[in-house]
Amino acid sequence: MLKPHLQQSSQSSNTLIPWNTKPSFPINILNKNFRIKNKKSFRVHYNNVANSTKAVLSTTTTEKSTLVQSTNEKSTSVKAVVTVQRTIRGTNLSLSRGLDDIGDLFGRTILLCLVAAELDPKTGIEKPNIEAFARRGRNVNGDKIYEAEFVIPEDFGGVGAVLVENQHQKQMYVKNIVIDGFVHGKVDITCNSWVHSKFDNSDKRIFFTNKSYLPSQTPSGVKRLREEELVTIRGDGFGERKIFERIYDYDVYNDIGDPDGNDDGKRPVLGGKKLPYPRRCRTGRPRSKKDPLSGSKNEEFARQTLAGLNPYSIRLVTEWPLKSKLDPKAYGPPESAIAKEMIELEIEGLMTVEEAIEQKKLFILDYHDLLLPFVNKVNELKGTVLYGSRTLFFLTPNGTLRPLAIELTRPPVDDKPQWKEVYCPSTWHATGAWLWRTAKAHVLAHDSGYHQLVSHWLRTHCATEPYIIASNRQLSAMHPIYRLLFPHFRYTMEINATAREALINANGVIETSFSLGKYSMELSAVAYDLEWRFDRQALPEDLMSRGLAEEDPNAPYGLKLTIEDYPFANDGLVLWDILKQWVTAYVNHYYPQTNLIESDIELQDWWSEIKNVGHGDKKDEPWWPELKTPNDLIGIVTTIIWVASAHHAAVNFGQYSYAGYFPNRPTIARTKMPTEDPTDEEWENFLNKPEEALLKCFPTQIQATIVMAVLDVLSNHSPDEEYVGKNIEPYWAEDPIINAAFEVFSGKLKELEGIIDDRNADCNLRNRNGAGIVPYELLKPFSGPGVTGKGVPYSISI
What we know:
Helix content is 36%, strand content 17%. Strands 10-9-4-7-6-5-8-11 form an 8-stranded antiparallel β-sheet, with no helix packed on it. A 5-stranded antiparallel β-sheet has the order 14-15-16-17-18, with helices on both faces.
């Protein structure tokens, strides 16, 4: 799964590939004295054969290679420098490695073909390509340097692309190609991509120059290559992917379970009418045919709904009484057991429930209707218990939330009627206090599961994969929008593939350590069906849809927050605005006229494929944005960038800090509430040892240890992490206007760092400042390596 993506560009500076500074074994095939005395260089001359100018190598006895041209026409001598990144792979004594070293010695391992940017004005056809082998030269900072020399006829014009043929036995990672010697300056070609061996695929790899073009503006000499490259990347929809391929195609999630194993490994296919789901990248695997308490403080429990791992679930209460929308015949009476009198007692007579709703003071974590259909089948599993849950909060005069009540519900089962009970925090009775702690453990397990499966996996990793596939299939590598989005897709396909193998797979970490067990991914599909909308992935729309903001032209960024001290929203809106300004400058530069949007065939096909194929199970929804104007494109692209960068950073890089200590965020509740149909013995045990009952409800030591180790990895920034706005992409630097816009973008992100520091130091902001309060830094743009609890990378890279 991850192999096709590895063929794509990446800005990684990691050591990737298989060479040392010395040959892998001594080249004693030739006599040493013979090689010194008969040292030869290569002479290149040109033969016109079948519309291709061949650079033919001939040996001379001089030490310096000389280029001559067979005609007397004016020409220019240029040199191409290819930088190949070292990798660690294989053994120094391998046969293929030895053959590669011999090929390098004779300068016959990398063939470069220069492609003219424009057609021949006389014939109207493509000009002959100019070919030459690149000789292996010096090492620079551990990278291998290959050099080729060309004689360019005067009428050749500019270079539009370079074709690369890798004649090594294995693929290689090419960082860039620089062609120097032209009157108008250097030609830079950023590759950062694997190039397959000709022994795996005889087709040459195409790399376009750094200048971006809309389809209608493509230089005539490379228009055919642009179209053919996209056809190659789309593939034919058949066969299993091979390591050297760069094919992007769609498939349903049929690779989570083990359809050929026992029943315990079977999982339903996600995607289709029964369980709608975003599409993943197809690998060719046969389809499955089976479809079957520092945080114990109540204030901290409430604060983390605004400034913790999952700030995407809290909602404003707008109606009373609370009522389920599920079928009462299957799930029991829909009315909530949370009574008005309970709430008014908890808020100590400050106001009535009606007044609290009118003044926007009541908020809820509502997992009742989402979880209740799973309760009975989850409770049949060993070692886990599930309820439908509602948790109510009150916005206090000092701007913090206070929990008021937790309602847990079990639907009818085995001739037993529906069971539901409400627990409140302000009981002065010891039994009630322990019941509240246990109920809170259940709610935290629900929130942990929703965070991991919906806020994190579904809304970032999973939803982004179709954007990546469509971008590679429909947008040429020289398209400006492809180049704008490209850094936001780095490593995402790889990490998603790894997650399907070890995290969300059957009997993987999620299933064995979270409350939903084997039904975890099925819940993710139900949440996608019920909740996911592209338009609400944009931060402003997300906040408004949850009642946490409303439009106000006089407020910063045009939005007035319902909870003024909402750290995620406050920092997020600044970052959203910075991203949108950058995208606006970029899009308006390449699309100065509105009609260019609708006439851009690649762009229209890209958006159509995202809607109709990548997220095809929702293709008929009315909320999909149109793509007719630059403003439409700005909104769409900003949303994609937000999800891949800021949204993911907000829900990912604090995982170890908040959930590594499992009492703060248990991932699973293993025992039922002591008040749910207890036997006399069970109730007596709870009264005698309530702390033991709570510990039994928490994850086991093994579960907690596994989750802790996984969260440590997921919360880590790699040393080569690329943060938004820190370093400019070569494609962007090529254009002076885009380069200037990036400088503004980068400067505003540095300002945001200071804004967040100032907010965390403000003692009036009690949700991010105070004794024992963790400063909110998850949306600070930059970070060092390791577990830092801050930093916004371009992409979903972990």
